Every structure is written in structure tokens, then in C-alpha cells.
Amino acid sequence: xxxxxxxxxxxxxxxxxxLVLPSFACVKSSKAVGLQLYSLxxxxxxxxxxxxxxVAAAGYKEVETYGYSAKDGFWGLDPKSFKNLLIxxxxxxxxxxxxxxxxxxxxxxxELKAFIAAASAxxxxxxxxxxxxxxxxxxxxxxKKVAAKLNTAGALCNASGLKIAYHNHDFELKxxxxxxxxxxxxxxxxxxxxxxxxxxxxILRSGKxxxxxxxxxxxxxxxxxxxxxxxxxNEKNIEVGSGGIDFKxxxxxxxxxxxxxxxxxxxxxxxxxYASIKQSQEYIKTELL
Length: 289
Known about the structure:
Elements: H1 3-17, E1 33-36, H2 48-57, E2 62-65, H3 79-88, E3 92-97, H4 101-106, H5 110-121, E4 126-129, H6 140-159, E5 163-167, E6 175-176, E7 179-180, H7 181-188, E8 194-199, H8 200-205, H9 210-216, E9 223-226, E10 228-229, E11 237-238, H10 247-251, H11 254-257, E12 261-264, H12 273-288
Parallel strand pairs: 1-2, 1-12, 2-3, 3-4, 4-5, 5-8, 8-9, 9-12
Antiparallel strand pairs: 6-7, 10-11
Helix pairs in contact: 6-7
GO molecular function: isomerase activity
Domain Xylose isomerase-like TIM barrel: 52-285
Protein name: Sugar phosphate isomerase
């Protein structure tokens, strides 16, 4: 894409028509870069206000929450207070990670409804399932049961103007006959109710190709975790653009995947964490989006 050429062409058309051209932004930089706040889990509980301010200062426009509970809220802040904190720092939280193992296990919707209420209160679009306990994924039939529960949860979310999403690790790519847990969930869930958040790092750790999944299930992966892999140690994260993942090729398929939110995550740091997240944000914004 040649943004400058497009701008000049549009400017010429506008001038010829005597129109005032609105501010022009290339598609490449139209999406905000998000941060999964779990990256800063060592700091958030002690100083949520200071951490959120530093995240904004690092250039992020979106955050993804984790760890909410009805008792402690978002690191001691109730949803309204947390929403105000985000607004003060020019941030939004389109997604949050909420563990729903208990709902999947017994079908009790009370905790799930509390999560939906919290997500709604902070202006989120998604209630995202971050993990499945071992006892919930022992065979292919278990994944079908999970998919059915996700559909029901998706209907509950939809009633509040939200959508449910599922975030993968690598265990969902374990084969069950000629399929995998992730493919079972993709096939058994209603696309109108359930989206997926692809953790690109974990897909590659499992030996699978993200682009093949985009081709097989177009439009289903509306969020991505953008987390790079150290070239020498695939169990280690490193700043985006410094590792072994070819993000440029993957991002060429963003439209096919249905990407709406690119969310950086890093689980370990060799440099000062705020310098690290700033470096990753700048790379994603300038080189990938």
C-alpha cells in the first residue's frame, strides 16, 4: 500500500471538487495497539493508577484486563473507578480475561453474569476466556461440551451487547483423531456468538501455522495476542520484532482473519519492562498495522 500516493490522489480529487479534505489516516496505522495487562502483573496490584499511566505513556491506546473478581474488582478498583482511570489516561479496554471454569463445569451462570456486568461497566466488547483447566479437556467430547457452554455464554453476552471470545494456548492443538480441540470449538460454536483470540506465540509453539487457521476459519480470529519468541529459546518471550516470529507475513492476513484488536503480551523481560512494552508498541504500530 502506498499511503502517500493515495493521499495525493484524494487531495487532488478534493481540490478539484472544491472540498475540504478531512484528516487522512492510512489503513496501516488505523488500528490501536493494545496491551494485555498480565504483562505487568508484578506491578499492577501494588499501584494500578501508576501502572495504567505508564502504559498510556508507552503509547498504548487499548488494554486487556485480567484477574477481575467481584471481591477485589480490578486490583482494588471497582469497575466504575477503573473505567474512569482508563478515561483519564486516554485508554479503552475492549477485552478482558475472565476465568469461567466453574460455569463450564456446572453451568452456574452467577459468576459469569458478574463478569458480564463488569465488562459492560468498563465499556468492553469482549468477555474472553483465558484458559481451560485440565479436568475440562480430557477428550474430544469435552471440547464439544465446552463449545456448547461457549454458545450459551455467548448468548448471555449478546444480551448485554457483548461477545464471548476464547484465547488459546498450545494444548488446544493436541490431536484428537483427525482434529484438535481448537478445531472442535471453532466448528461447534456459533460465529455470531463466539469469537477467538489467537495467541500467535502459542499457535507456533504447538507447531501449527496461524495463516492456515485463518484460511480454514476466516473471520473468526478477531483478536490476536502479539507475543514474540526468543530465537534461541522458544519458551522465552522477547520484544516484538526482535524474535523469531515472522509477524509481517502473518499480519498480511489480518483482513482474512477478521482482526479487530492487536494486543501485545510479554510474560518475561530482560530489559526494563516499561521500555520493553514501549519498544514493542512502536514496532507493532509502525511495522505491522
